[in-house]
């Protein structure tokens, strides 16, 4: 077994996990919304990418931008119509978003049919270093995931919007008193998180499959990644995805595909039990 | 005490309806109703942990599945080594599974194993600072884990395809008729309900509710909250295992879909829509959602899931107490006044508080 | 405002419940009054994970029923389809099968997709003496006197395919599949056949259902350097695997993926350029050049729009025709024994060519084709012949299995 290749693949899997978990890091980590429709946002992003790059034959970058916009709009609608009415009742949000996930799945199925769709690979070829072989598409995903993290960090920590987001998430009533339009900030934050999730779907579309039920597979992985790294911390989510990705890839050598998954889940459970704040949460206060 | 009259009247009506159901129903609908009544037990088990102790378990089907699989595997072992084992060149029943060759033993194991697992999980989780959402996420991971294990250990469990051709109702040796099985399930469900009601109205139940409302305060009264939570989790695991076992003969089939995320989320839905923390809501929600899914899917095979999704969102948004909870809050008073039992609400709350304080001391 | 909305919704909910209830009762009434039709249950998934494959089967079955009715129906009566969705849940498949048999009194059911769904239905069909026409390929090792199995069992796809592969593509095989009974059983026969044909297995791996990450599998494959990758990956895993194979720069010229499941629907899900060059052995491809197939393809596209047509859809289509023929032939169509008996020996010109029902074992003798996928997500057919007789218990694996239909 080529261990170097396995580690390289682990990095690419980490990139994928980071990509799908980043949006959840915002909606769950910052806003504390348990969004069971997270997987369906990925799915909508993937379908947008199918419409733009396969049906309309436009460049992939357009598909990515469109995926961000479309899912951000869907996210904003979700927030305004439903989630907003349930703040402070996290478990009810969970139920409502579960209902939304059923609705979104069925709507996409009605529009596009249940069969899988194809999105062609915008980056053919692979990088070859010695015995290690990394497809450009996967390389792009890792790079793009890192870039999104940096952009998100910039937005959250260097812009006025980010400051407001952090303010609202830390103390809502105080923010209200200070005249911050909290409902608007909530909507924008959720839309931002949803948009990031949508881009993830668009970027993964050429690599994985595009079908109405695709989101279910990503949901649990995303939650586990966010929780493993530490809820509410960008750095935590990033490091969490590296741990999950590498563990998954390296363990397949010993445990096979299912075995690796089972061990990783056990590890995550143990981490939540002993360190619910996550492996890498740095106390800021 | 005011609400008890409503609860009783409604419960008696419901049981009466269910008891008379076989008289005017076809065999097919009767079997469905039997299945849904089994689900009520599962929903009650869920209500004990979620509605009363405030612990939303996203993986409760693990206990349901464990109970069910014990009986289903036991049935499969009745005629020698089953084909799902011989397919993987297992020619002898593995030693660990030998006890399951006896159905009574399987019945016992199917009740004990989920309880033990619930105890272990409860001990593991509640003896730490994990709470709220994190508890839900751990149980979510557990459900996924259990599902993967069942699918992966296909030489022992039948894997993804599930266990088929399970005999109908031979719980006590000779096969029962559908109607007999139906009444047996109904009686067990009523007993489970009465037990759960007794438990939640007891001193223990009051402590549970106060743990849900304010855990640190109850700890301050020198109650060990985690022990209470572990205990209710064990009871709930036991009842879920019971439901799983009763489900196997009436469904005739048991597969990983009945034990993983799918089933875990379904039971939460029934409860949320019926109304949690009332026990009766568990019954109402289970029956309404299941009948609705069934009838809607017959009428609108391409759209029914959309309806279900919309209904879930609407109930969560506009009836946060669930259907039964809302009905009870709105009409319960009116109904009771008809029975000349109108008690001044403030007075009653005062009494409840005193009652509560007495119990605490 | 909120209160008002709540009331509206309450009324809406109540209406939905009533709607469902009323629809139910009126449905059964109308069923009773239409005496001069033969009811056929159609049972596939419109939702859930396997809906991606099942939708086409449902469409093809309903289309066949329409065509048969347009031709005058069966015994002068129209066929009345009663469709049910089982949401990819085997337990629900059993419930729905029961509903079709007991509530709707259908004469036969065309349906089922996964083996799990068939197995869940089997006892229901047997106990209520119904007839199930199952259009899927499956792992075999099953016989029910109430089920007509119209898909190929593994020996029909493999007996010619494996020798062809070892002769034309190489001796070293890497076996990969989804982790459940069907792929494991297929690969068992593949291994036996490889022994006979001087091939060898250089690797074997199974992934959980629904898995879409194949980096380490591809890694293992590159280490093993097989001549042929034999894949029994199903549903969404198939498309993901072919895509990632392509990403990693492997080429079908030196290491093609061979499959007995990957069909046009899968190709269109992965995209033509990804699937190009890979090989499938199936009874039917959309490109089959027979007049029956041209008509089938044209009609299907006219009715449901342009989309891939695969062997399973075709199988569902002619299954329905076979059922119509059996209904015509049987004296008492409500007697399951007679109806299943009427299938024996039936011959039909299906889109794939001539198909014959085995006189004894409720399986069919069909065609064998090898196709190489092209850029347009279609197959170029390079080999065509009659498939061997169905062996539900493969003679290779079970040389002295007592055949249950002879009892």
TrEMBL record, chain A:
| UniProt main location, coarse | membrane
Which locations, inside or outside the cell, does it occupy? Cell membrane
- Pfam families (alphabetical): BPD_transp_2
InterPro entries given in the database record: ABC_transp_permease, ABC_UrtB_bac, BCAA_transport_permease
Transmembrane helix keyword on record: yes
Give a GO cellular-component term: plasma membrane
Return the CDD domains for the record. TM_PBP1_LivH_like
Give the transmembrane ranges: 6-26, 58-82, 94-112, 132-157, 188-207, 219-243, 250-272
| MF-aspect GO terms | transmembrane transporter activity
Q: Member of which family?
A: Belongs to the binding-protein-dependent transport system permease family. LivHM subfamily.
What is this protein's name? Urea ABC transporter permease subunit UrtB
UniProtKB/TrEMBL annotation, chain B:
Is Membrane one of the keywords? yes
Provide the membrane topology annotation: Multi-pass membrane protein
Q: Which residues form a coiled coil?
A: none
Question: GO cellular component terms?
Answer: plasma membrane
Annotated transmembrane regions = 36-55, 62-85, 105-126, 133-156, 180-199, 230-248, 268-291, 303-320
Keywords, ordered alphabetically = Cell membrane, Membrane, Transmembrane, Transmembrane helix
Q: Which domain of life is it from?
A: Bacteria
Query: What is a single molecular function from GO for this protein?
Result: branched-chain amino acid transmembrane transporter activity
List the Pfam families: BPD_transp_2
What CDD domains does the entry give? TM_PBP1_LivM_like (cd06581)
Supply the name of the protein: ABC transporter permease
| Species the sequence originates in | Paenibacillus abyssi
TrEMBL record, chain C:
Query: Origin, by domain of life?
Result: Bacteria
* MF GO annotations: amide binding
Indicate whether Signal appears among the record's keywords.
yes
Instruction: Extract the InterPro entries matched here.
Output: AmiC_PBP1 (IPR039570), Leu_Ile_Val-bd (IPR000709), Peripla_BP_I (IPR028082)
The yes or no answer to whether the keyword Disulfide bond is present is no
GO biological-process terms attached to the record: amino acid transport
PANTHER family given in the database record: ALIPHATIC AMIDASE EXPRESSION-REGULATING PROTEIN, PTHR47628
The protein's name is Urea ABC transporter substrate-binding protein
Q: Which PROSITE patterns match?
A: PROKAR_LIPOPROTEIN
Query: Which keywords annotate this record?
Result: Signal
Q: What are the boundaries of the signal sequence? A: 1-20
């Amino acid at each position: 077994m080529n261990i170097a290749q396995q580690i390289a693949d682990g990095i690419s899997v980490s990139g994928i996990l980071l990509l799908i978990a980043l949006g959840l890091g915002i909606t769950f980590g910052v806003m504390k919304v348990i969004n069971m429709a997270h997987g369906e946002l990925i799915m909508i992003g993937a379908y947008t990418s199918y419409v733009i790059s396969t049906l309309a034959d436009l460049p992939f970058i357009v598909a990515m931008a469109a995926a961000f916009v479309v899912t951000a709009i869907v996210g904003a609608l979700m927030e305004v119509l439903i989630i907003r009415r349930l703040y402070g009742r996290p478990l009810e949000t969970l139920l409502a978003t579960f209902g939304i996930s059923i609705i979104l799945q069925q709507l996409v199925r009605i529009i596009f049919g249940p069969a899988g769709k194809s999105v062609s690979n915008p980056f053919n070829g692979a990088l070859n270093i010695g015995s290690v072989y990394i497809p450009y598409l996967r390389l792009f995903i890792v790079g793009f995931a890192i870039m999104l993290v940096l952009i998100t960090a910039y937005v959250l920590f260097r812009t006025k919007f980010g400051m407001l987001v952090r303010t609202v998430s830390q103390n809502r009533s105080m923010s209200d008193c200070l005249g911050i339009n909290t409902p608007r900030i909530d909507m924008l934050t959720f839309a931002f998180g949803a948009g990031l999730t949508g881009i993830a779907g668009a970027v993964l579309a050429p690599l994985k499959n595009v079908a109405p039920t695709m989101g279910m597979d990503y949901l649990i992985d995303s939650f586990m990644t966010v929780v493993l790294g530490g809820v509410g911390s960008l750095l935590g989510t990033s490091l969490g995805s590296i741990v999950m990705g590498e563990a998954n890839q390296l363990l397949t050598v010993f445990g096979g595909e299912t075995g690796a998954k089972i061990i990783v889940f056990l590890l995550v459970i143990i981490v939540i039990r002993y360190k619910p704040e996550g492996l890498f949460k740095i106390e800021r206060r | 005490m005011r609400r008890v009259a409503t609860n009783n009247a409604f419960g008696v009506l419901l049981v009466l309806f269910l008891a008379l159901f076989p008289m005017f129903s076809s065999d097919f609908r009767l079997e469905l109703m039997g299945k849904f009544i089994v689900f009520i037990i599962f929903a009650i088990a869920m209500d004990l942990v979620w509605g009363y102790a405030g612990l939303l378990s996203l993986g409760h089907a693990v206990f349901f599945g464990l109970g069910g699989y014990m009986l289903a595997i036991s049935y499969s072992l009745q005629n020698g080594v089953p084909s799902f084992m011989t397919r993987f060149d297992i020619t002898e029943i593995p030693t660990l599974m030998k006890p399951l060759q006896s159905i009574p033993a399987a019945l016992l194991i199917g009740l004990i194993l989920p309880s033990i697992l619930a105890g272990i999980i409860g001990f593991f989780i509640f003896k730490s600072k994990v709470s709220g959402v994190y508890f839900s996420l751990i149980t979510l991971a557990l459900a996924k884990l259990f599902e993967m294990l069942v699918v992966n250990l296909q030489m022992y469990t039948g894997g993804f395809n599930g266990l088929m051709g399970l005999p109908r109702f031979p719980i006590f040796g000779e096969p029962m008729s559908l109607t007999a099985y139906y009444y047996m399930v109904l009686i067990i469900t009523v007993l489970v309900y009465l037990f759960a009601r007794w438990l939640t109205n007891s001193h223990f139940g009051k402590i549970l509710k106060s743990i849900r409302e304010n855990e640190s305060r109850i700890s301050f009264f020198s109650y060990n909250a985690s022990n209470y939570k572990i205990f209710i989790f064990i009871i709930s695991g036991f009842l879920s295992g019971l439901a799983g076992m009763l489900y196997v003969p009436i469904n005739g089939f048991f597969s990983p879909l009945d034990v993983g995320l799918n089933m875990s989320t379904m039971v939460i839905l029934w409860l949320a829509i019926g109304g949690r923390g009332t026990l009766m809501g568990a019954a109402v929600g289970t029956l309404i959602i299941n009948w609705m899914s069934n009838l809607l899917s017959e009428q609108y095979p391409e759209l029914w899931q959309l309806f279900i999704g919309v209904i879930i969102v609407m109930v969560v948004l506009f009836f946060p107490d669930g259907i039964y909870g809302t009905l009870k809050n709105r009409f319960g008073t009116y109904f009771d006044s008809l029975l000349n039992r109108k008690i001044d609400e403030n007075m009653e709350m005062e009494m409840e508080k005193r009652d509560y304080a007495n119990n605490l001391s | 405002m909120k209160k008002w909305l709540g009331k509206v919704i309450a009324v809406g909910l109540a209406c939905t419940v009533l709607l469902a209830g009323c629809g139910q009762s009126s449905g059964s009434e109308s069923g009773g009054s239409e005496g001069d039709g033969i009811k056929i249950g159609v049972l596939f998934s419109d939702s859930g994970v396997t809906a991606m494959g099942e939708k086409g089967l449902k469409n093809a079955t309903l289309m066949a029923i329409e065509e048969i009715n347009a031709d005058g129906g069966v015994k002068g009566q129209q066929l009345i389809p009663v469709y049910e969705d089982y949401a990819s849940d085997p337990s629900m498949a059993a419930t729905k099968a029961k509903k079709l048999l007991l509530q709707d009194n259908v004469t036969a059911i065309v349906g089922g997709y996964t083996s799990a769904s068939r197995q869940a239905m089997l006892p229901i069909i047997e106990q209520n003496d119904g007839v199930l026409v199952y259009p899927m390929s499956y792992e075999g090792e099953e016989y029910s006197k109430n089920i007509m199995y119209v898909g190929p069992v593994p020996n029909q796809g493999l007996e010619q395919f494996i020798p062809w592969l070892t002769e034309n593509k190489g001796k070293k095989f890497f076996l990969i599949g989804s982790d459940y009974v069907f792929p494991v059983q297929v690969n068992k026969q593949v291994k036996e056949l490889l022994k006979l044909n001087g091939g060898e297995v250089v690797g074997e791996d199974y992934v959980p259902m629904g898995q879409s990450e194949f980096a380490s599998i591809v890694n293992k494959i590159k280490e093993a350097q097989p001549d042929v990758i034999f894949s029994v990956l199903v549903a969404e895993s198939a498309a993901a695997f072919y895509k990632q194979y392509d990403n990693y720069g492997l080429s079908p010229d030196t290491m093609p993926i061979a499959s007995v499941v990957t069909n046009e629907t899968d190709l269109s899900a992965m995209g033509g350029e990804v699937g190009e060059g890979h090989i499938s052995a199936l009874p039917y491809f959309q490109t089959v050049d027979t007049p029956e197939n041209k008509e089938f393809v044209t009609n299907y596209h006219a009715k449901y729009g342009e989309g891939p047509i695969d062997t399973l859809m075709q199988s569902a289509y002619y299954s329905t025709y076979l059922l119509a023929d059996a209904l015509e032939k049987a004296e008492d169509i409500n007697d399951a024994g007679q109806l299943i008996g009427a299938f024996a020996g039936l011959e039909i010109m299906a889109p794939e060519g001539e198909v014959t029902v085995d006189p004894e074992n409720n399986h069919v003798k069909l065609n064998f084709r090898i196709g190489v996928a092209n850029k347009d997500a279609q197959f170029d057919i390079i080999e065509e012949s009659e498939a061997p007789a169905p062996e539900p218990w493969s003679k290779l694996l079970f040389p002295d299995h007592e055949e249950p239909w002879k009892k």
